[in-house]
Amino acid sequence: MKTQIKRFLDTFFYFNTNEKKGLLGLLFLVIFLQAVAFAYQKYSHQKEVPVLTIVQLDWIKDSLQTNNFAPQYKQKFLKGNRFSKDSIYPSKKLLLRYPVDLNSADSATLVALSKIGSFLAGKIVALRTKLGGFHSLTQLTEIWGFKEDFLYDLEGKIWVDPKQIKYIAINTISLDELQKHPYFKYTLSRALINYRTQHGNYKNMESIKGIKLVNDSIAKLIAPYIHFK
Q1: Beta carbons within 10 angstroms of residue 87's beta carbon
Q2: Rounded to an integer, what distance in angstroms lies between the CA atom of residue 141 and that of residue 28?
Q3: What is the dihedral of CA 223, 225, 228, 229, to 10 degrees?
Q4: What is the CA radius of gyration of the chain?
Q5: Residues 28-70: pLDDT tens digits?
Q6: How many CB atoms lie within 10 A of CB 54?
Q7: Does residue 167 contact residue 177 with C-beta atoms inside 8 Å?
Q8: Among 45, 84, 89, 153, which has the minimal tally of Cβ within 10 Å of its Cβ?
Q9: Rounded to two decimals, what is the model's pTM?
């Protein structure tokens, strides 16, 4: 019986030296991979420090140091060890004093307004800087993404202080400086400078309308930013 079993094993399960080594190596590899999988599974179930929270804490710290947040927001950040909704989106009713002046409000204040997120807040600040200030709320509709309906939702909550506008000294400004303004561009700026050179200083808007390029709509657009002294 033993002889028959031995003969059967030698016939169907015979391995030479190299095959035996390969089989042992494969067995070792399988055991090793099983051990790694077990260790990884055990480790992954351990409680980890949330990376997002750490990043947020660093962001808050940097924001406070660089004064990116208005002072009234600095006390509303954490509830326990978690960020509250008011941490990133400050309470609009409790923290804001209406109406908000768009010519002096910082980004954090704009974000806290209804319908204004971080994207639109950045666009508002960028356009305000290029224009030298807003003279009308309707100028907000020039921003891509700002719908006219938003003005109805923000009625009574925002306004513009015309005293904050940086006026253009039309009789002394250079071509390079004038064409940087979004409402003037190069063609209009060159026409204004050339006309001034040929006819002398401008006295009022009527003298500017002497330029063929300046129609009523353009005159209405640029008039709030022009200073004649």
Answers
A1: 15
A2: 70
A3: 160
A4: 36
A5: 777 888 887 777 666 554 444 344 444 444 444 444 444 444 4
A6: 10
A7: no
A8: 45
A9: 0.58
